[in-house]
Amino acid sequence: MINIQKSERSMKSNFNYDDFVFGVQPTDHILLCNYKDGTWQSPHIVPYTDIKISPMSLCLHYGQTVFEGMKAFRQDNGQVIIFRPDKHFRRFNVSLERMCMPAVGQDLFIGGMKELVRLEEHWLPEEQEISLYIRPFMIATEPRLGVKVSDEYLFCIVCTPMGLYYSEPVRLKVETEFVRAAEGGVGYAKCGGNYGAAFYPAQQAKIQGYDQVIWTDAKTHEYIEEAGTMNIAIVMDNRLITPKLSTSILDGVTRSSIIQIAKDLGMIVEERKVQLQELIDEFQSGKKIEIFGVGTAAVISPVKCINILGTEYYPYTANDATMFKLKKQLNDIRKGRSSDKYNWNWFI
User: Hey, what domains does the chain have and what are their CATH numbers?
Assistant: First the structure.
């Protein structure tokens, strides 16, 4: 049972849907639940507020933080769904296990999320292409210094309105010096350190005129892995090619969705290693190649330019590109415009 304290006044009245920056405006409520003495305490939903933790909390010093990101949509018939929360739930617990943090039950993760989204669904307009971004996260809160696994944690869920993450096709640089993750590390876990470690090379790429980097394998820098905020996919000759999952690559929910849709559209799907030289050879042959990022925030982001070993190549991004067909099919499922035969939509 979740104790709910409703906000007396909505912040939505001052929110401009036509001009906003993603991730700045929270919605009206937050879900909070503490872990203490080896068990989860009673969760509660309260009006949105800052959280108070000790400066000695272990999360601030030793990196025990895990988060997820997913979306709720208002379908064309007015109903509200959360997209694939079950897969996000499983991935969250995989990340928690890797970071030595206690598992979260489905009643708390999905049940609590549904309760929260029911309170916040008025943030989803009827007509605009706006989604509700949902951010569950957990931090270690035991107040003591010393390298150890925390005995206390705080689990939270917050929401924020979201439009297009990348409004234009992106320019990416293949990174062959710095490393995001290595085999056997935490690259497959959605933990804060993976993102913090990526900031410096990503900033250097932005100085050079690129939006993000594409990471390569830590051992040889010969194979692409993923981008800073997205998995990577390639379309060539009616084939959808994406790097095979490993302990250095995040198991993307949008990635798995696009793979399933591509198979059902009759495409050949190849999950395998993708060598930089293979891409160079294909570009130099003059073949039409599509490259795009896939992720919860980005959905599908066309890549209009990719720098590989100092040379810029220009993937196909015209309106008839296959990636846009995949994106439309995914959006139609989420918005209720086509049948959800995969049972991806969870109604609140």
Answer: 3-162 (3.30.470.10), 170-334 (3.20.10.10)
